[in-house]
Design brief:
The structure holds two protein chains of two kinds. Chain A is an all-beta fold. Chain A contains no helices and ten strands. In chain A, β6 (62-67) and β7 (72-77) form a beta hairpin. Chain A starts with 9 loop residues before the first strand and ends with a strand. The relative contact order of chain A is 0.33. Chain B is mainly β. In chain B, the strands form two sheets. In chain B, strands 2, 4, 5, 6, 9, 10 and 11 form a seven-stranded mixed sheet that branches. Chain B is globular and about 35 Å long. The chains are: A mainly beta, B mainly beta.
Chain lengths: 109, 113
């Protein structure tokens, strides 16, 4: 029979606009929350992390927000570019990263 | 540094055959992880090592799967016997122990027919 694949949420964004990717986590004891990016045919790549005692951290064109009250994590990408098209995963904690299901970001040129 | 090196990049094998996937972590990294990625289940942690010692293998699906790390620069993931449902992309990653940034290899795409 036909297998049912994992349905990834998809976010389509116009080039130059800002993107917001959301993630819900389950483990309140996690020390760190991390965002990874996976381009087609490649392994996941680290973007940014945030320690559990922080609520915001900024990087180059990216900002991660952490809301521990509702166990929510978001990644904001400013001025989205075609090269940002990828699947984005949130992950919890070292030592071993536990990845969420991922969100596909599609940038429309 | 060449990054994490996995071999082979692609493997097609017949059901029942033994498959061995190989990984060379980044020099100086003392944590190594094996992940499996499928459309059905996403990215799953299979096993990880710290200083060549297996720490958590609870993600290894069955006894058919085994992983070794004989030294700091080499690890293998073996499937014996292989089954069609093992078809997936297998990633190896390495990091400094406790770091949030893990470096992934390009993956091995395994197809079991």
């Amino acid at each position: 029979g036909e297998s049912v694949g994992l349905h990834l949420p998809t976010l389509s964004v116009q080039e130059g606009d800002n993107s917001i990717i959301n993630c819900a986590y389950s483990n309140s004891a996690s020390d760190y929350f991390i965002w990874y990016k996976q381009e087609s045919g490649k392994g996941p790549q680290f973007i940014i992390d945030i320690r559990s005692n922080m609520d915001k951290r900024q990087g180059q064109r990216v900002t991660v927000l952490l809301n521990k009250t509702v166990k929510h994590l978001s990644l904001q990408i400013a001025a989205t570019q075609p090269g940002d098209s990828a699947v984005y995963f949130c992950a919890e904690n070292p030592p071993a990263l536990v990845f969420g299901k991922g969100t596909r970001l599609s940038v429309i040129a | 540094d060449a990054g994490v090196i996995q071999s082979p990049r692609h493997e097609v094998t017949e059901m029942g055959q033994e498959v061995t996937l190989r990984c060379k972590p980044i020099s100086g990294h003392n944590s190594l992880f094996w992940y499996r990625q499928t459309m059905m289940r996403g990215l799953e942690l299979l096993i990880y090592f710290n200083n060549n010692v297996p720490i958590d293998d609870s993600g290894m699906p069955e006894d058919r799967f085994s992983a070794k790390m004989p030294n700091a620069s080499f690890s293998t993931l073996k499937i014996q016997p292989s089954e069609p449902r093992d078809s997936a992309v297998y990633f190896c990653a390495s990091s400094v122990q406790g770091a949030t940034e893990a470096f992934f290899g390009q993956g091995t795409r395994l197809t079991v027919v």
